[in-house]
TrEMBL record:
GO molecular function, one term: DNA binding
GO BP annotation list: DNA-templated transcription
Main location per the UniProt record: nucleus
Protein name: Zn(2)-C6 fungal-type domain-containing protein
InterPro entries: AtrR-like, XnlR_reg_dom, Zn2-C6_fun-type_DNA-bd_sf, Zn2Cys6_DnaBD
Amino acid sequence: MGSNATSRKRACDSCHRRKACQTIQCDAAAPQCNWCEHHGLTCTFTRITRPRKQSGAKSTRERIERLEQLLAGRKASVDRPAASGTSPSTGSGQGAAAPIQAQNALPLAPPARSPGASFGKLHFAGYHLGGICSHNGIPFFSTDGQEWIKTRTGTSPAFSTLCALGPPWQNQQHVQQALLSSASSLELPDRHIVDEYFAVFRSSPFRLVFPVVDIVLFRDTIELAYEPCEGHLSAEPIIAKACVFSFLAIMTLLEATAESTAKVNSDACAAKAQFLMPQIVYDTNMTCLEICFMQCMYHLFTGKMQIAAMFHSLACRIVFMLGAHTPSTTSFRVDTPERMGREWRIKTHLRKLFWICYTFDKDISLRTGQPPALDDQYCDLTLPPMYMDVRYCADKWDMLCQGDSEVPLLPGDLRLSIISSKTSKLLYSAEALHKSDAELLRDIRELDDELERWRVLIPADYRPTLSCSRQFEPDSVANTPKMMHIIAIHFEYHFLMATIHHASCRCRAWASCESGEMEGISSSLALSVEASRSTLIYLRAAVHALYSEAFWMIVFYPMSAILTIFCNILLNPLDPKAKDDLELLASAPQLINAMRMRRLTPNEVIHMKMTEEFVSELTRLGRCAVNKASSDANEMATHQTG
């Protein structure tokens, strides 16, 4: 072994892991090097060696240095503690070296190692604090996690009381039996009501962002649904009725339809469509895909993640059955002779439905920790023609709305959805759980580089910033759809930044607590925490521009950020930023309440109240952690001086 190791001129696996934390020289002796011999370890050379991307690593280091300088600059007037270790949220590279041993904080117990980790588990700085429920995507604190909170705060958390009725910030209202029983009356509303909602859809930017139906083909669906029929209904009119009911359920949520159209019970429409849906398994077509996606979208927009995920999975399977995951050669082209023909419109609309299903798929996957339903390897991810020409050109949006444009805007940015998909696979898949720290950090850096390349290509008017100052104010934008697009990509960017770097919390190095080894990892965690701060700061500035129907989609972003900031306060209660972070947490309930909503259902009122109480409890616990750490530090200083 000795000669082979010498010829390879590399350290054994154990010494290689130690290189990040101290200057060592593996002697590669046979059968064991000096280090392995004295520590009773097996001396191996089995790790995977991959070529390094020098430019990417350099770029990431520069980004981390820039952020650390930014963090340090904001607190330049604050006297930092003089000890050797600070928190991962502080700016200096040296201070980030030992995040677990925060200045004057009591030493933490060794983190409990869980048998597995995924995005379905809640980890922070090596601690397994709980999980994300597999059926609704809601984080919860485990018994061990609550015990850790108690040791850091000196008080017991009251989560069991607050969450007695279900997850606090996600509406878990189930379809009421009364609605399903009333679905026996499946008569559609008067035709003019459907026509009014369809007219609103055709003239609204909503149809470009969420192309749930085609503005020409849906007329045929309406005609078929209202066609008089004597005797037994065939499959086609039943499916058409379900599509119209699903469309009404979606449109009644829109703020733009609140005053201009007749009132329709959205829950009843959704329930009636579901009552008719068994027929789609026997006759799968484009209309069936529209139904499944609109049901998914409706339940996402009303806060019912579990039901939405089930309809989404069905929609994605139909996407494959109809071949929408691979584009037609004539899809989206405006110069094709087949343009405006029925076959062309069907192919083009199917491709739009694929992209919107793809966007939702990656969003649901990261929120719930469940595997994606659409595998990128089986999908053609070529962006729609002209997509980039109009996506960041709001001046063209009015023209697109008034005309018969077939260029979809779609939610957010499709390129961010593709990066989200890579993030889920590389960092949070079952395969990712077996990666070494070095492999995990390499993937984090590469994804960070790709996200940064996307950011710098965004026009300045839309471009997210790496970090929002607490005095941040967004530019005033008269075009509301443009403002919503800016808000959406800011939230997505900061969430994706936090998600990418949060994966460093799974590194095994957290258990060793050796300062040199922790430098890169703690810098990565610092990016995750700072991105979470930016989410709340941006929400505070842009809250009054949010569309009410987007509430249950948007509220996930601040809640995810709140959890990260809360855990960071408990980990580093004496960090100079801890008090500012507590102020951010304290302002969160008011921010969430300020997010404009449509008229709340009684169940939503209950869950909004629970959300406020949950965040208030996190704020209380954060204050307890800061007070306890300060008291312990003062007591320790008194003993030392005495």
